Amino acid sequence: MNADNRIIVALDVSSQEEAIALLDKLPQVSFWKVGLELFVSSGPGILEILKQREKRIFLDLKFHDIPNTVAGACRAAAKYNVDLLTIHSTCGKDALKAAQLALTEGAAAVDKPSPKLIAITLLTSLNSRQLAFELKIPLELPEFALHMALLAKETGLAGAVCSPQEVEQLRMSCGDDFLLVCPGVRPKWADGGDQKRSMTPKAAFKAGADYLVIGRPITAAPDPAAAFSRICEELE
Predict the structure, then answer these.
(1) 29 in the Ramachandran plot: left (φ > 0), alpha (ψ -120 to 50) or beta?
(2) Apex CA 119: angle with CA 169 and CA 99, to 5°?
(3) Catalytic: which of 55, 62, 116, 206?
(4) Residue in 186, 194, 198, 199 with CA at minimum distance from that of residue 231
(5) DSSP assignment of 87-133, as one string?
(6) What predicted TM-score, i.e. pTM, was given to this entire model?
(7) DSSP string across 28-87
(8) Residue 166's closest CA among 180, 187, 152?
């Protein structure tokens, strides 16, 4: 797969109109992320628009609730026929199992392929100090991220979301068939924003990432198409 097909561009905008404007500016992008802001503001209509344009979809809603609730949410999300869907590993093993089963059943009920359910290990906006002092988790950050990824693997999930700084360790421990998606990716020429554990696209792929999620360095650029092309060229 070409590098440009492994870049997921984040549609982190507040309206369907803004999203369509970005789609029009970036017709060469094949994989898009729809997160909480856009999904809450516009509903599933944006998913239909992406499907009509034959785009792949990462529905990044980060489910985090009791087993019955995440199962219901996954069963409902199955009808959207997206490619990737997220849930927090910190829901626990019972919730992860229930979510995976419900997603599979929900997709079968509407005769659609089941989305790949992937687990959030730790948000890339958090660093080691916050993990220890704010969340009171007595593990080193890489160890915690690995534990969350292994929990997802043990419960049958397709992969995990992790910062590129942890991806090499997770790849070694979880194997080549475990999907690893990395946000927090920033070219050297882009502003770091609120990402605490970032890495360049080339370094993230070299470390073992399957897909990179990149938003503002592309979507907030004066010329989004030029920014996307520049990143792809730097990966060659």
Answers:
(1) beta
(2) 145
(3) 62
(4) 186
(5) EEGGG-HHHHHHHHHHHHHHHHHTT-PPPEEEEE-S-TT--HHHHHH
(6) 0.94
(7) T--EEEEEHHHHHHHTTHHHHHHHHTT-EEEEEEEE-S-HHHHHHHHHHHGGG--SEEEE
(8) 180
- Per residue of the chain (236 residues), give pLDDT as tens: 688 899 999 999 999 999 999 999 999 999 999 999 999 999 999 999 999 999 999 999 999 999 999 999 999 999 999 999 999 999 999 999 999 999 999 999 999 999 999 999 999 889 999 999 999 999 999 999 999 999 999 999 999 999 999 999 999 999 999 999 999 888 888 765 555 556 899 999 999 999 999 999 999 999 999 999 999 998 88
**What angle do the packed helices 141-154 and 93-109 form, to 10 degrees?**
40
Distances, alpha carbon 58 to alpha carbons 38, 48, 67, 115, 146, in Å: 12, 13, 22, 9, 22
Annotated catalytic, 62? yes
Question: Distances in Å between the alpha carbon of 57 and those of 8, 13, 32, 89, 138?
Answer: 9, 15, 5, 21, 35
Residues 6+ apart with CB under 8 A from 44: 80
